[in-house]
Amino acid sequence: xIRWILVLLLALPIALVAQSTTELENSFNQxxxxxxxxxxxxxxxxxxxxxxxxxxxxxxxxxxxxxxxxQRDDSMAADAFFVAGKAYLRKRDLRTADNKFQSSIGYGxxxxxxxLVVQGYLERIxxxxxxKNTSRLSSLSEEAIKFFTVDxxxxxxxxxxxxxxxxxxxxxxxxxxxxxxxxxxxxxIGNLQQDKSQLSKANTNLEQNNTQLQRQRQRIxxxxxxxxxEKELVEERVTEQEDKISRMTAKAIKNExxxxxRKMTIDSLEHQRExxxxxxxxxxxxxxxxxxxxxxxxxxxxxxxxxxxxxxxRYRAKKRSSEILEKNxxxxxxxxxxxxxxxxxxxxxxxxxxxxxxxxxxARSYKQVTVMFTDFKNFTRMAERxxxxxxxxxxxxxxxxxxxxxxxxxxxxxxxxxxxAYMCASGFSGSRTASDSIxxxxxxxxxxxxxxxxxxxxxxxxxxxxRIGLHTGPVVAGVVGSKKFSYDIWGDTVNIAARxxxxxxxxxxxxxxxxxxxxxxxxxxxxRGRIQAKNKGMIDMYFVQRSV
Length: 548
Prior knowledge:
8 strands, alpha+beta, 3 domains, Serine Threonine Protein Phosphatase 5, Tetratricopeptide repeat, 8-stranded mixed sheet, single chain, Alpha-Beta Plaits, disordered N terminus, 16 helices
């Protein structure tokens, strides 16, 4: 019986975990308060999304958003719309998923929930890439950059990043505390096992006493058989005496009777005394064994009740601790991923990784890097015709387009912008096609500017035209600054690339002899001959026309 009780106790936590979602849904059905139903609906949507039940997740997320709108809870609405978007992604309904993420971003902006807005934009951009919708991809990138380039948002991101790091430290302490609690619970389990051992010993003693009682009963039965046999012997003697008496005289009979009576009286008294002693001893033994059995049964019941209560309370505490730890670990992972994404927008991946691991990044030398400079023609004249806001918007639109083009080539790293100049480079990964990639990007830059030029000309508006120059050679790259990191490159290669841009023409791409030698089999180029470059002497230059 003890074995089955222990099996039941071990199976109890598994049954409770399996019923957790069902109990949560029962609580939702019984809840009367709208805010409570809203929170329960959101929790159920998350649970069903994690379990892979997308339809249930969609239904409960819709209930949560409806209740959040009725309660004017923008924060909950943003979270519920985001869960709905993830559920529709599972169903491969990209259009509906994009609408849900758009709603989540809108509510997130009202609450200034930076992390949720970041995640929403990332999901929408990923959907646009799957749909190969370049116009939406460009507009989403522009919209996201506008939102995240506001100083207040930037400060909040930095503040939240510091908060996340503090939270990580707190959660590490909490994890250690939970580990200590786990060790303590293991020690208590050891004590319970000792109590179980003592209980087993008590049960063994009860069984031994029961065996002794059985032996006593067998002895009493044997003695009873002996008494019956003695009775039969007495009856035989009486019969013999009667025969003897029938043959004796009256006086002899009288004397014999007196002697026999005296003898039988003495024998009967002794036998009665023995029987009374046996009965008393048997009654005392039965009473003692009954008391021992009742005490053992009571101790067993109390121990089982204590074990059940202790296991249940420890299970509930461990379950709550595990849920808190799982939720906090999930939040840490998500925030680390967001921090990594923000860091990768500023620094190359290998440099960002080194900064996270060591807190600093060493300068590196690269033997073959292709550097590109762009510069807009008549920027000062356009500044006179446009308001400062219009000028900055035009410049911002161009640089966003350049960023989007560069992001399509993993080999290219954007270095910085200097006024109306844009600087990027390729070759840090050692790829042989790095020079080809950056020349393709330069061609796309000019194609974009030509498209904008045609649109502006039809409307009679001013437009940008750019000169582009490229040169290939060795550079030194590294991170400077302690608060606002800046990744930059140095060397004569950078200066010659700038001279290539200065000696280029509007709408053209000018490359040096070194770069031409690397790309001549992939692109059609027009030689320009040797041209004087400021402080660099005569340099062979080429105009890139198009891909072969």
